[in-house]
Amino acid sequence: MPDKKISHDGVIASLSEDRVTVKITSYAACTSCHAKGACNMAGSENEKLLHIPVSDPDFRIGEKVRVILSQSLGFRALFLGYVLPFLLVLTVLLAMTAAGSHELVAGLASLAVLVPYYAGLKLMRGKVDRQFSFFVQKT
User: Fold this and answer.
1) Phi and psi for 69 in degrees, rounded to 5?
2) Nearest Cα to 47, choosing from 17, 13, 16, 72?
3) pLDDT band at 69 (very low <50, low <70, confident <90, very high)
4) Three-state DSSP state, 14
5) pTM (two decimals)
6) What are the residues whose beta carbons fall under 8 Å from the beta carbon of 107, sequence distance 6 or more?
7) Euclidean distance between CA atoms 17 and 115, whole angstroms
8) Structural domain count, the chain
9) Angle of the 84-98 helix axis to the 103-112 helix axis, nearest 10
10) Which domain holds residue 68?
């Protein structure tokens, strides 16, 4: 079964010899809603810059492109960024509560476990980046 792909349209923001920077604008799902004028959530858009290595930088600044990622890698990113930290917090909270710690101490310790987790993830950025391969395709 072939691996499904996740794709987003973007615009080339900058170029270098071996890398392109693609700007992707993410819009909130409610921006097309007819009641967006009465909602505080409307208009929340988010721009992301992706630095993608390329072997043949045959692109121009301002050119529209499509950024493609394997769906299985998207799930891995979701796991590393959200699921595993949640499981760590929950495990520490339950373990400290079962050990008889005060609720405040257990809660603070369960949140404090996120600091070394995300620091370690940042230190291993190079290894993690090599696992996630984005591809740029002209549209």
Assistant:
1) -135, 140
2) 13
3) confident
4) strand
5) 0.59
6) 93
7) 36
8) 1
9) 150
10) 5-138
* DSSP-derived 3-state class of residue 128: helix
And the tokens for 121? 């993830």
Residue type (1 letter), 137: Q
Task: Count CB neighbours of 113 within 10 A.
Answer: 16
pLDDT in tens, 81-105: 899 999 999 999 999 999 999 999 9
Nearest Cα to 112, choosing from 82, 77, 85, 73? 85
133 phi/psi in degrees, rounded to 5: -105, 115
Q: What pLDDT sits at residue 115? A: 96
Q: Name the strand (E) or helix (H) holding 90.
A: helix 84-98
User: Which residue, 8, 127, 18, is CA-closest to 74?
Assistant: 8
